[in-house]
Amino acid sequence: KELAKMMIIDDSLEQGINNYKGMGVIGTSGIGKSRFLKEISYHLRLRGKNVFYDELVKKENNDLLNLTSIFKQTIKDVDAEAMEQLKGELAEILPDLKVKYDVNDETSLITEKNRYILYNKISNYISNIAKEKIHYIILDDLQNANLLSLIDFLMNNLKTKNVFFIFSFCESKDNDDNRVKNTISRWIKNKDIIDIELHNLNLEEIAE
Description:
The chain has 208 residues and is of the alpha/beta class. The protein has helices spanning 2-14, 33-46, 68-74, 80-93, 96-100, 115-129, 148-157, 178-189, 203-206; strands spanning 22-27, 50-55, 135-140, 163-170, 193-197.
């Protein structure tokens, strides 16, 4: 049943109806959130959708490193013109591109002072690759996200309605970082996302 809800959302997006910017799957540990996201990813790909999936791991350094896997997945959809415009920023996130595109370290924009500039360019980049086709960005374990400010920025500044975020969030007494909880609460209050509370009773329904 929960999977069917996601497919209905996908149908609506295909029709140009985009009431939400994303969906949050919320629940305690071990109830099947990751499995559910993988099921969603599988079925959306069967429908021909571009799906970028990553399981977030807590990092103590550059928060943009959380997105390394996502950006690597997007490269195949980037045309030459867009790559030329953003190669410096992408090379800082994906160091392997520095040699390929002959990028000098001095082009880096990843500093606190210029963070907004970088976020805006990343927003333009994602908007560019998704201008003609729906793209899903699936982030498992959002409670591990250092990149929350970037996700928040993208939700509010993307210039296309063809990008839909799906994430899981683990409710835990051990998770004392209210930053993610407060942001998710704001997204729900502002109706930016639809939230699904996954319980053990949902597990058999996931595969239906």
